[in-house]
Design brief:
EgtC-like; 13 strands; 20% helix; Gamma-glu_amide_hydrolase; glutamine amidotransferase; Glutamine Phosphoribosylpyrophosphate, subunit 1, domain 1; 265 residues
Length: 265
């Protein structure tokens, strides 16, 4: 479906996180190693990052594959940040929204990505729209499931929920309305990373006190990568990572079996 990644740590060029590792997000756009659904993520990409002293992130998004954007490598060479969220996209359904449908979505200090698909979209989530402010529905950035899931998360954030509560409650709500959905969500405010596993893979690499990377799959063969169990909420900062089991709706599809781990060399 998609691959995404969030990084918190010392300022680095975007390319050092997204392009240079042996199995970086760039390579995952055509050769993911652990993706359960889909094989090529060529329906758009995006990266969001934070500049020092500015809480509102910048974004760069395109409708085509990351490898076809000859300008991105140059941008990634010189732009530096200590907080990044990026994604490469495999669209569930083709549409006309182009780069507007590519993560990360953004509002205020937040960047958001959804790896997965809502079962029965759009009809399955129609009942949830009534709970959203009309202006949020009318101003959806794109006409896809990820944009509506983001609207549900954002409504909770604006209502006072913290990041972990907003993601956890949205996952349960969507899973109840659309059983069988895959809902790996990723959110950052530039200081923390919050994520869920619900139907696809998620890993993290932590150097306590220095950096944390949360990603759909490892971007290299560092043995310190840790896999996050399915149906889990992850809350991370530069100093620690906390994992909490997610509530299981009574009508939810059982977790998919874990993929066998690749041998280390």
């Amino acid at each position: 479906m998609c691959r995404h990644l969030a990084y918190l740590g010392p300022e680095e060029p975007l390319g050092r996180v997204l392009l240079e590792p042996a199995h970086a997000l760039y390579r995952q756009s055509w050769a993911p190693r652990r993706q359960r659904y889909g094989t090529v993520n060529a329906d758009g990409f995006g990266v969001g990052w934070y500049a020092e002293g500015d809480p509102v992130p910048a974004r760069y998004r395109r409708a085509g594959p990351i490898w076809a954007d000859v300008s991105f490598a140059d941008l990634a060479r010189v732009v530096r940040s200590g907080a990044v969220l990026a994604a490469v996209r495999d669209a569930t359904l083709s549409g006309a929204d182009a780069e507007a449908a590519a993560a990360p979505f953004a509002a205020g200090p937040w960047l958001f990505s959804h790896n997965g698909a809502v079962k029965g979209w759009p009809g399955s989530l129609a009942p949830l729209v009534a709970g959203l402010p009309a202006v949020d529905v009318l101003s959806l950035e794109a006409r896809n499931d990820s944009a509506l899931v983001w609207a549900l998360v954002l409504a909770r954030l604006r209502g006072g929920d913290d990041e972990a509560q907003a993601l956890a409650e949205t996952v349960v709500e969507v899973a109840e309305a659309a059983p069988g959905s895959r809902l790996n969500l990723l959110l950052t405010n530039g200081e923390t990373i919050t994520a869920t596993t619900w139907g696809d893979t998620l890993w993290y690499l932590s150097q306590p006190g220095r950096s944390t990377v949360v990603a759909s799959e490892p971007y290299d063969d560092d043995p310190h990568w840790q896999e996050v169990p399915d149906r889990t909420l992850l809350a991370a900062s530069r100093t620690d990572v906390l994992l909490t089991p997610l509530k299981e709706p009574s009508n939810a599809t059982p977790p998919a079996p874990a993929l066998p781990k690749e041998p280390r060399t």
